[in-house]
From TrEMBL:
Belongs to the arginase family. Agmatinase subfamily. InterPro entries: Ureohydrolase, Ureohydrolase_dom_sf, Ureohydrolase_Mn_BS. Keywords: Hydrolase, Metal-binding. GO terms for molecular function: agmatinase activity; metal ion binding. The keyword Hydrolase applies. The keyword Hydrolase applies. PROSITE patterns: ARGINASE_1 (PS01053), ARGINASE_2 (PS51409). The gene is Agmat. PANTHER family: ARGINASE/AGMATINASE (PTHR11358), GUANIDINO ACID HYDROLASE, MITOCHONDRIAL (PTHR11358:SF26). This is SPEB protein. One of its GO terms (biological process) is putrescine biosynthetic process from arginine, via agmatine. Pfam families: Arginase (PF00491).
Length: 194
């Protein structure tokens, strides 16, 4: 829950224990802005702050589902310059993400990984209850493929953010978010599932 700003102090704490972390980041936005309204810390900046503080192993950062409008003609340049793998939403359309996640597992290796899932990574047809919806996003089935595709990684933490139930009178966004969090719990190291 909460906005994506909460990931920043969580990664500070985890990197303090484990060193720089790999990151599987599902989102419509990269959240690597520098400032907004003069502020350096807000929900669109957490991963830039994490890079600046050395909290991330940038060669092990993948961002999936990225899309949406931008004021910049090359909105993903900062991410790519850091060494992030940026998987835009259109690379995911109409296909299974199982092959992508096999590549991601190799990229992450056996070092500590954090999963950060912004609900706006999912298309608003399925999850309208968020503050910054962007059309043409991932499906719930693809979200499951991403999460289940992280099974076996050395996951040291995870979050699911940006759910705003008041924007979805159907309750579907909250239901989807709860199920995705359950799936994340099921893939944590040491958890036995049937």
């Amino acid at each position: 829950g909460g906005d994506h700003t909460i990931t920043y102090p969580i990664l500070q704490a985890l990197a303090g224990k484990h060193g720089p972390l790999g990151l599987v980041h599902v989102d419509a936005h990269t959240d690597t802005g520098d400032t907004a309204l003069g502020e350096k810390i807000y929900h669109g900046t957490p991963f830039r702050r994490c890079v600046e503080e050395g909290l991330l192993d940038c060669s092990r950062v993948v961002q999936i589902g990225i899309r949406g409008s931008s004021y910049d003609p090359d909105p993903y340049k900062y991410c790519r310059d850091q060494g992030f793998r940026v998987v835009q939403a259109e690379e995911c359309w109409s296909k299974s993400l199982v092959p992508l996640m096999a590549e991601v597992r190799k990229q992450m290796g056996d070092k500590p990984v954090y999963i950060s899932f912004d609900i706006d990574g999912i298309d608003p047809a399925y999850a309208p209850g968020t503050g910054t919806p962007e059309i043409a996003g991932l499906t719930p089935a693809q979200a499951l493929e991403i999460i289940r595709g992280c099974k076996g990684l050395k996951i040291v933490g995870c979050d699911l953010v940006e759910v705003a139930p008041m924007y979805d009178v159907s309750g579907n966004t909250a239901l989807l978010a709860a199920n995705l969090l359950f799936e994340m719990l099921c893939i944590l190291p040491g958890v036995k599932t049937m």
